[in-house]
Amino acid sequence: MKLGEEAAEYVSAKFIKPIKLEFEKVYFPYLLINKKRYAGLYWTNTKKHDKMDTKGIETVRRDNCILVQNVIETVLHKILIDRDIDAAQ
């Protein structure tokens, strides 16, 4: 997180005032599927991740059935939390 804050300060110094880049979130690992479609473990402290955050993926979309949501949620858990790609297949 410290590295992200330092990067924000460095980049902000290059911008013309009053533009400032703010450090917002840390995701690790981070799975970027497409524009506005991603999943990752959201961290606010260095001890343990807070939650698995998903955006635009079938787990958060309301136009999919519950079975699809559960399968995608399980696969993401295997990939992001367990870090077991083979089990996700």
From TrEMBL:
Keywords: DNA-binding, DNA-directed DNA polymerase, Nucleotidyltransferase, Transferase. The keyword DNA-binding applies. GO terms for cellular component: delta DNA polymerase complex. Its EC number is 2.7.7.7. Residues 1-83 form the DNA-directed DNA polymerase family B multifunctional domain. GO terms for biological process: base-excision repair, gap-filling; DNA replication proofreading; nucleotide-excision repair, DNA gap filling. It catalyses: DNA(n) + a 2'-deoxyribonucleoside 5'-triphosphate = DNA(n+1) + diphosphate. One of its GO terms (molecular function) is 3'-5'-DNA exonuclease activity. This is DNA-directed DNA polymerase. The lineage of its organism: Eukaryota, Fungi, Dikarya, Ascomycota, Pezizomycotina.
